[in-house]
Write a structure and sequence with these properties.
With about 325 residues, the chain is an alpha+beta fold. About 40% of the residues lie in helices and about 15% in strands. Strand 10 and strand 11 form a beta hairpin.
Length: about 325
Amino acid sequence: MEHLSFFKLQAKNLLKDFKSLHCDEGDRHSEYTPKYFDVDGILLYFNYRFDEDNFTFTLMNAQHIIAKMVGYEKWENLIRASESAQELAELLLRRFKTAEDIQNWEDTVSFASKDVVQKYGQEVLSAETMLDYARQYYELGDRQEIVHLPTERISVLTGKLRTNALAQFDDEHNPAGSLRLDSVVFCRHCKKPFDFKRSKVIKDNESNLTMVVCKNYPNCKGTYLDYKVLTPTVLYGEARTAELEKGTRIFSNIKMDSKVHCIHCGQQYSYNEANAVIDAEDGQVYVHCKNYPKCDGTLIDMMPVTEQNDNNYND
């Protein structure tokens, strides 16, 4: 179904729910269950005072509400939006049933905007960026719910399938870069520590979605999102680069491509080869020597190498 036809159908569904709930006299059915939308909650969310005298709610009003639910001031703006923007709107409308659904998405976007901008390097979030983010956000929500499904609907992966799933904790699946195969973690649900690689991987046999869960599943419903990393953790990818760049702002005499000398191990290397490590005790990130963990030198132990002192180090 093309996007416009879907939007028109949702407006009609919203109107149907309103008419089912609100009788001609303005009374409400005492035991009404919305078929498509929680009309009362959504109208109140957008400040529609349907308890006022002479209040009418038409298909045009319903179209206006549908547009506002996905961030547009007017129906015309929605139907004239780009293909990506309309695809995003359809994805959201398939998820929005109550005012709480709308509020949760708006809050999530508000809190996550800085992280999304940092990842994509955009000051203004494009429709394409938000569509990508929404897909990941809602898929992750679906994955989280897998642990609550009946166990007869679940398969626990083993062998290569399990190994491959655990190995996928890269920048895409693990943006903070803090969770690795060799991490020791603490599950906040069952209050048990264990090696991350002992986690289970389960699959919903109907949707084929998978999720990394606590090693104590099904007795524990915790997922990797509930883990606290206990070990010092080496960062990788974009997370590591960001921390090294912070170091160059602290010590302006060091650049990303600077040659440095570690006074702990005596080794020379390019600063951009250094490690960034999350400390297990205070949770802070520290720049460490390229040879970490064999060398515990940190940023303050890295001396910029010039031609003159390069000869001294080599003598």
